[in-house]
Structures are given as C-alpha cells and as structure tokens.
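haha ok so turns out i had the wrong file open the whole time. this is the CORRECT one, sorry everyone. sequence first:
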Amino acid sequence: MKFVELFAGIGGFSLGFERAGMECVGHCEIEPYPQKVLLKHWPDVPLLPDVTKLKGDEFGTMELICGGFPCTDLSSAGKQKGIHAERSGLFDEIIRLARICRPKYIVLENVADLLTGSDQKSGERKEPEWFGYVLGRLAESGYNAEWEIIRAI
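then structure:
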C-alpha cells in the first residue's frame, strides 16, 4: 500500500508503516531540521515543504494519507486557540488533499485535548467542538472514523 506522510516530522508514520510492508511515496514537512532527518533516511522519497502549496498530484497515486497535524493550538500546554487557529487549522489541508487524491484511508494523530479540551480560565474539562469539527469534515468527505487515546506513559 502506498502512502503520503503530511506534517511528517522525522518520519514516525513512515518508519512504522514501512516496517508493516507499506511504501512511502512522499513527505511534506516545513521545519528545516526534520527535513534533514527525512532526507537522510528517505533520500529517494520526494519531500515538499509546504502543505498549503500541494496540488494533490505531486506524489502520484496513494491509498493512504497520514499525518500528525499541528497540535499547537489544541494542547493544554498551549493557549488552546482551537481547531480553526493558524497552526492546528492546517487540518483542513488534509481534507482538501483527501478530496483531491481520494485515498482509501486517512490516519491522523494529535493530542488527547482534541477530544477533551479544557477551559483555560477555570481549568474545568469540557467537550470541545474541535473533535466534532474533525469528525464532521471527515464524514463530509466520505470517510468513517475510529479513534483511541494512547497514553504516553
């Protein structure tokens, strides 16, 4: 199965998926240091820097798009500006590209706060609209969703 990794970082999805027998046909990562890591470990895989400039035909046919879109605006470690803020709002680029490329699967990664959120003033936990937005955009694009929180410790 061929896949493209968006917001690739240092290639975590690529490493796992390739070990499972899949083939990475493209990376997209804007940060310079992770780009160096990707080019060292995947010198033959095309690397493009800006997801907002992708047209959808750069990597050819793929069956899967994966990526960990920026959590900067969602994490409780940040200001929790939300899913429509500058960095985390890049989620919409995944949807735009999926609508063009029509992969069979989309695999996403993000922080648990995408599901649970919190009120920064009171510290009270609440159900945010962010996850509903993500699920809605996937459904509008013809995708079903399953999710799980995997704890780091």
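The chain has a mean pLDDT of 92.
again sry for the mixup
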